[in-house]
Structure formats: C-alpha cells, structure tokens
Amino acid sequence: MVRIEDVARAAGVSVATVSRVLNGCGNVLPETEARVRAAAQQMGYEPNLSARNLRKNESRIILILAPNFSNPYYSNVLSGICDVSRNLGYSTLIYNTYDSNALDESLMVSLFQKNRADGMITLACNRDDRWLEKYAGTYPLVQCSEYVEDANLPHISVDNRAAARDSVAHLAELGHKRIGIVTSENRYLSTANRFRGYQDAIAEAGLEPDETLVAYASADYSFASGKQAARALLGVENPPTAIFCVSDILALGVIAAAGKMGLQVPWDLSVVGFDDVDYTTMFHPYLTTISVPCYELGRRSMQLLYDHIQQKQEAETAVYLPHQLVLRETTAKYAIQNPDRSEQI
Amino acid sequence: MVRIEDVARAAGVSVATVSRVLNGCGNVLPETEARVRAAAQQMGYEPNLSARNLRKNESRIILILAPNFSNPYYSNVLSGICDVSRNLGYSTLIYNTYDSNALDESLMVSLFQKNRADGMITLACNRDDRWLEKYAGTYPLVQCSEYVEDANLPHISVDNRAAARDSVAHLAELGHKRIGIVTSENRYLSTANRFRGYQDAIAEAGLEPDETLVAYASADYSFASGKQAARALLGVENPPTAIFCVSDILALGVIAAAGKMGLQVPWDLSVVGFDDVDYTTMFHPYLTTISVPCYELGRRSMQLLYDHIQQKQEAETAVYLPHQLVLRETTAKYAIQNPDRSEQI
DNA sequence: TTGTAGGCGTTATCAG
DNA sequence: CTGATAACGCCTACAA
User: Fold this and answer.
1) Contact A192, A181 (CB under 8 A)
2) Neighbouring-strand partners of residue A141
3) B344 or B301: whose pLDDT is higher?
4) pTM for the full model?
5) Rounded CA gap, B263 and B240, in Å?
6) How many CA atoms lie within 13 A of A288 on its CB side?
7) Are A260 and A279 in contact (CB under 8 A)?
8) B345 touches chain A (CB under 8 A)
9) Where on the phi/psi map is residue B302: left (φ > 0), alpha (ψ -120 to 50), or beta?
10) Could you check: is the Cβ of residue B57 within 7 Å of any atom of nucleic acid strand C?
C-alpha cells in the first residue's frame, strides 16, 4: 500500500501539500502541484478511504433499503440511484428489507451510528412508519416511490391518486359502468392512494361505489394472488366489465384468470395495470397501463438525497414526477366489448 | 457520538477492557464484562467502523459486480449473497457494470486500493477476462455463474455443458431430428458451454451438425432478439422442429415468434429454455427449462469468498451446483407433434 | 486480569 | 505558498 507520505517523499514535499493538491484546496504553486501529481500518478496512489472517512466523519456511502430485488420496478429505480451516486462519488450499499416489515429501525440507526452510511434511500417504507420522523434532521433520508403519510419527510414519487383516477376515468369514458379494482393488503401509501384515485373517478363518473367490485391481492403483488382476486371478482352475479389493477403483475394475473374463465381481454373484459414494467409488452394482449419513470425516480432520489446531505437550502421535500396512461390492447369500449350484457341494462 | 472512551469511563474501566469485551477476545472477569456490557448497551454504543477498519486494515464490505439488476436471474443471486453476507457481518456494495464490457479493471483495482472492499463477487465476467488472474492472491475474488476459462480462479456455477446436453438429449429422445439452437453473441462462458453441450447431444444422438440450425440473439438475451432469431430459424426450408434456447427469455421470444408464424408450441414446435426464472410459469404454455439454483449460487458464492478472505486452506476453487431439467408444456414428441412434416422423412 | 500508549492514513489548523 | 503536527476512534502489543 502506498501512503500519502510515500508520495510526499517522492515529490519532495510534505504530506500537507500532497493532501492539498489531491483535494484541490488551498494554494499550491503550479510547479509543485505538477510534481505531486506526477508522483501520485506514477506510484498509483489511492487515498485510503477508511482513514479519510475517519478524519472527515463521513463514509461516502449511501444505504439503499429495498424489499425485493427481483421486482423489475425496483431494479430500474436501483439503476437510477447507482448511476447518479457513482457520479457524485458515493458507493451504494444495498440492504434487503424483504417484503414483510419493510424497515428495521434498530438496524438503520445502528448503521448510521457505526458511521457506515451518510444517508439512505428507502424504496418501500410503509405509510405508517412514523418512527422515521424521529430521525429527520439527524440522518439524511429520501423516500422513493413510497413514503410515510403526513410526515413531511423528503420523498419522491408519482401522483398515484391522479394516475389511478386517469386510468379509471378512461374506463368510464369507454362506457364501463361496473368497474372493479384489484388492490392489495399491503401498507404502502401508493396502494392507498391508487384506491382513493379509483374512488375519485367512480364518483366523478356518477357511478355508485360497490364493495363487490373490490378485491384484495397479496401484499407482494404476486401473479397468483392477482389470479385469485380476479376469480373472486368475476365469479359472482353482475361482475365488473373492467378492472383496474394497482400493479402490472396483478393485471397479468387477472388476464390469465379471465382467460381460464372463458373471458377474452379486451372484448369481454377491460384491464388496466400500473407501473409499465418490461413484460407488459412481452405477450399479447399488450397491457394498457400507467407508465412510471422508475429510472428517473431513482436518479432524482439520489440527487435529492445529495442536496439534503449537503444541507442545501433549496433541497425539496416533496417531488412528484409525471406519469402517463399508455393505451395498448387491454381496454375496449363497453358496447363493442360485451353485447350480451349490455342488453341487460 | 458515543465513543469507546465514554463507555470505559461509565463502566469505570479502561478502553482496552471495553474493546476486549466487545470483541470477545482476551480474558475479562465476568463481573467487569457485565458492567461494560451494561454501560455500552445503555449508552447505545456502536463502534465506529471507519476507525475500526482503518486500524484493522479491512472494510467488511463486499463488492458485487452485476451487469443488470432487472434480470431476475441476477436478482435471485443477489438475494443469496446479501443474506449470507449480512450473517457474516459484511455489507454489500453493488456496482453496475452494464451489459457491455462487464468489468473495468482500473475501477476494481482502485476500489481495493482505496480499501473500500475486502473481496468481490463478479456476476458476469467474460470468459476472456484473463486480466483477473493478475490479482489472484491479492484481492479475494469469487466468480459466480460466469467465469474466466482456464484461469483457475475461484468460481461457482452449474455445469452448463451437461445441462445443455440434457436438454437437447431430451429433445432427441422425443424423436426430433432437426434440433435448432438460439444462442447469443456474448462472451459468457455459460453461452459457450451451452453451445458445446448442444453439440455433444447432437453428436451423441447421431445427428448431423447443421449451421442453418444455429441462430444468434443479442448479447443481453433480449426478448426481441429471441423473436428475431426464431424468425431466422423457422423462416427457411426444412426448419427445426425443436429449439433449445440458452435463456428463458429467449425461449419466450421464440414461442411468441412461432405463434405469429402460425406454429403452436409444443404441437408444431418444441422449445426448451434455460434458468427457470419466475415468468416461465406465468403464461401457458409453461416453459420446459433447466432449473438453476440462483439463490443458492449466491449463498455459496459469499461463503466461498469468505473462506478465501479468511485464507482457509480448504477453500475450494471450483464449485458446481446441481441443475435440473424441468419438464413442463413446451416439448412434445415429434411424431405426435407434427404429422405433416413427419411424412416427409 | 487490567491499563497505558502507539499508531493505522488522512485532513486541517497553525506557524513560518 | 509550505511544513510540522494534532486529532479522528479504535485495536493491541506490552507492561503492570
């Protein structure tokens, strides 16, 4: 290992000067600077981060708390975070929080107290994780995609309520009168807000809220639970002719279940998903869904976190990125779609 | 921040004693130990990792070099690595190498020289990344899934050649005479070995190698390139009646393309994939494929790396985990499958 | 069994 | 503009 002292000796200067040159602070004669740089370069000097971090009381590491790597939604966010953090000179430590109880308070506190990380980005805190507020101001934090309701902690996401309203309004405009929803039992704010958006649109369309049109999938949005929810929704009298799902994978489950029940999408049933992950266009019918800018969400999270670490005055506390309803092949007009049933009305 | 000195003072002992207690080394009176633990607990003491790492010249961090988070194959491996590393007291730093030129030598060296990491796991080195050999012995390394050919560096994977042979032998046993392969243009050893396994099985079945039965998909196994390869393979005279694909996603692309060409899988065409990622059973026909123990691969990688970091004598250098051919719905007997063509023979 | 003290490699303060 | 030097918090000989 080559230390700063070795470089100093080789360049014929003191360690202070080497440090100044390499950190670009303080005034150094161009001539000495050149000599130092040459020496450092030639010896392949790399500053020891443990030493630097100890001295500066930082770690240049960002903690990412993610529940589930295999969800393509998170992997895109992750890419965005990693790309920006690398440019800013930060490394990214990844912690699997598993789907269950998203965050672990003691683990988090311990990591910060150990000086392991300078800040953290949560990818899936629950909307009732109020304990996070205790650490506001102490540990820089950005909540990405999901955030604690009414907590005023920095967060970034799309406007889930508006997006859901857009989706369901689209179904209503197509003439659907019985619009169902497959939501989830989890404690994510996004899920709650998507449900609210669904209710908004139902009300705005002058339709009656109906509990038999609501089904719950498992907390982790599994494909199987999407199928199950669809069976519950469609297996009753007067079933929905359109279903809004709070995630793409659930929507795919719904389409699969509908197919098994002899219902063709979109002719017999319209379906809308949420997120626009890769496999929405891997099989026909291509899924109509809400496109969420995952990668950009990740990028902005890291930028925002950096602002907070730097204690910038302008650091925002709530950022909403634009979403988009992407019309593809799983929605159709009610009249065309189901002539039999339309006669019943 | 509470330091070891604070704990020492509170417990009425010296810092050395506190250190000894907390690190479980050296002899300490049970009584003093209790006092120290109580004090540490009460004050919420957490050792400063920067200081400890500087002193011990380690980082307790593992580097994971991954090309593409959104590939479910890698995300499962990642979970395995993270679970084990956490138990061993390591944090996991994740570096996106992107699909292109998997590893960056200078980046890697710099991270080690900076004392950022104690070891690293590569998830996708190319088979010709010979430069890795230079650092054997200097920087602990485990290559997971992919490894450098003939380099004798620690690696762990399935026996890709045997697995491919199994797959293709299965197709041959079903009576297929014209068995195609969709492989890829990348520089992964797994791809090369799967191709070799394909050739092995073709030879063992007494079939003639035929270049028109080989198609190349893009380096990153994209769905679209799988479709394209299938079109090339199936759009000619005397096309294959079965296709072995070096990845599941390619197989799904092949099935999609075949469907568009009016070919029903498995009746008109048998298809076998590789990896057994989640979505192989999301749509019918469920994919017949090679099941690879991704999570376990990740777990074992980390355990192996730990052995090497500890310089254990028994640390293995090559580990192969068992694979399994999982028969599902995309393969069928040749005779049944395609009566028209079978008459031509 | 316990305490003292040196040093890990940096950065930053203070003189010169 | 440059150099000497004191921390940063911890571990670990060595001494008692």
Assistant:
1) no
2) A120
3) B301
4) 0.93
5) 12
6) 23
7) no
8) no
9) alpha
10) yes
Q: Encode pLDDT of B166-207 as tens digits.
A: 999 999 999 999 999 999 999 999 999 999 999 999 999 999
- In sequence order, what DSSP letters do the residues of A2-57 get, joined into one string? --HHHHHHHHTS-HHHHHHHHHT-S---HHHHHHHHHHHHHHT----HHHHHHHHT
CA distances from A288 to A249, A266, A321, B156, B278 (A): 12, 10, 20, 41, 22
Which nucleotide C1' is nearest B23 CA?
Answer: D11
| Helix segments in B25-71, DSSP class H | 30-43, 49-56
- Nearest residue in B to A57, CA atom: B50
Q: With left for phi above 0 and alpha for psi between -120 and 50, is residue B60 left, alpha or beta?
A: left
**Band of pLDDT at residue B272, cut at 50, 70 and 90:** very high
Q: B53 to chain A, minimum CA–CA distance in Å?
A: 6
Name residue B7's amino acid: V
Domains of chain A by start residue, with CATH: 55-158+293-321 (3.40.50.2300), 160-292 (3.40.50.2300)
Any A CB within 8 A of B302 CB: no
Q: Return d(Cα A309, Cα A93) in angstroms, integer.
A: 16
Spell out the residues 6+ positions from residue A304 whose beta carbon is closer than 8 angstroms to its own.
A142, A154, A156, A315, A316, A319
Q: What is each CA distance from B134 to B105, B130, B138, B141, in whole angstroms?
A: 10, 8, 8, 12
Question: What's the pLDDT tens digit per position in A37-90?
Answer: 999 999 999 999 999 999 999 999 999 999 877 778 888 899 999 999 999 999
Closest to B272 in 3D by CA, of B284, B290, B259: B290
Interatomic CA distance for residues B65 and B108, integer angstroms: 9
Tokens 């393309």 sit on residue: B257
Rounded to whole angstroms, how far apart are CA atoms B159 and B139?
26
Burial class (CB in 10 A: 0-12, 13-18, 19+), B316: middle
Is the CB of residue A70 less than 8 Å away from at least one CB of chain B?
yes
Whether A93 and B61 lie within 8 Å, measured CB to CB: yes
Report the candidate in B257, B284, B252 with the shortest Cα–Cα distance to residue B271: B252
B90 in contact with chain A, both atoms CB, cutoff 8 A? no
Of A49, A83, A252, the CB nearest to B115: A49
When CB atoms are compared, the residue of A50, A96, A110 closest to B59 is: A50
Residue A345 reports pLDDT greater than 70: no
Nearest-CA neighbor of B83 among A71, B111, B75?
Answer: B75
* A36 nearest nucleotide via C1' and CA: D2
For an interface test with A, give the residue of B50, B120, B252 to mutate (most A CBs within 10 A). B50
Task: Tell me the pLDDT tens digit for each residue of B297-325.
Answer: 999 999 999 999 999 888 999 999 999 99
- How many residues would you count in chain A? 345
